[in-house]
Fold:
Amino acid sequence: MKSSIVFSLLLIAASANALYIPAAADTSMERRDDILRRGGGDKGPKDRPVAPTAEEKRKAANDKFQEMKSHVIHGKDAKGKDEAPDKGRHTLTAYCKANPKATGQCNTKTNLCHVPDANKSLWDDRPGKHTLQQIENHCTEAILNHTKNPTNRAQVVKTDAGHHICIKYISGNNNGGPGTCYHAGVNALGPKAMAGDTCDHTGNEADNKEDKADFKCSAL
Structure:
């Protein structure tokens, strides 16, 4: 009987001397990994929102573009159905397919085009011009820049060819739609333009005569 009592007392003592971890330090593995992934400790309350990383911001911008991609590039709605011929379709080939009688002009330096009768901005996506991936990159950059600096103005984006062009992003929040993205003028911006700046319309015709190229959709 005595030995049993002694043994119980020893167990209690051992438990009393065990390492104590306060409840406040009981950070979940998920939360810990979240903090480490962002680089650095979180000195505030453990439920305090942590600022998203640059990669997360870019992904969010691209996710937003994905919602409007079919509209912008192919002129299709959220259900994959063709929209009216004058809706979306900010690529030359898609627009001309839906509007075979349309005519317009491209800037051969920037490969940006415009249809005056419809006041339509188009990327020239014919071979050797803008790829669909490049167009996606342009819009993602514009959305990302707009998130940093919300404004009604367009955003400066640098193309793979090294031109700084003006890209207009409209969120669609006001009408419940997916939003849209298109270029604001066919000309490149001056040497002082920096990616991420805001910009204004750069004109619907190429500034230099040698860069002007008329097109007929029926001939493409």
Confidence is low (pLDDT under 50) at residues 1-43. The CA atoms of residues 100 and 219 lie 9 Å apart. The helical segments are 2-16, 29-38, 54-74, 92-98, 132-148. DSSP finds five helices and eight strands in the chain.
